[in-house]
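Can anyone check this?
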Amino acid sequence: MLESVFVFQPSPWEDRNWAQLSGLPLEEVWIPVDGEVTVFGWFIDAGPNHPVLLWCHGNAGNISHRLENIRRLFQRGISVLIFDYRGYGRSTGEPSETGLYQDALASYDYLIQARKIVPERLILFGRSLGAGVAGEVAVQRPSAGLIMEGAFPSIQAMSDHLYFGLPARWVMDLDFNLAQKVRSLQVPLLVIHGDQDAIVPMALGKQVFDAANHPKQWYVVSGAGHNDVPFIGRESYFETIDSFIHKALSR
């Protein structure tokens, strides 16, 4: 399938002592999605009554590649559930658009049902392709807010940018129409983008922002590309996220 070439690019899992290496209290979580798929993740608990972030990562790698970013959030008192989509990391199955949505919804339900997290404490976070996944969760489940980083309006919009308008449906059965999703949302929204992003140009992220309802916030990280936004943005980046989360939870 061409989706595996152009979109879904998981990295092989490495068995290492990730908790020791990261200095984080990583609790392994196995979440059954259906009779065939189980997704693997880590829950990093900052303590009772703290905000909880459900993290939907991008199209490449696996959850072990996001630990430094998570460490910075944990230091600010934010709990995180990060999970690998089906076919990524230790999760079973093969990735697909519908499958990724199902994995994220099952992870959300795990937080609500097993962890007893109320939606008023829960923030959805999606980076790149994961913004579309988090957007789908926001449509289907209640939450306190939604953060999207490096987001794009749809697979077709990316095809317009990368392949000069070639109809995406000719080569892959994917849509990820985030612009359509955000039009129906009423939760607080933070959209983050690097102004030097050569993979998803900032103009595409702005299209997502413009399609969304208020309350919403647009935050540009000067000098950042697609994959280095937290590290270029540094304290300002984490302070912006922290401020957004606490405002969203206090509504």
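Reply from J.R.: I decoded it. The chain has one domain: 2-249.
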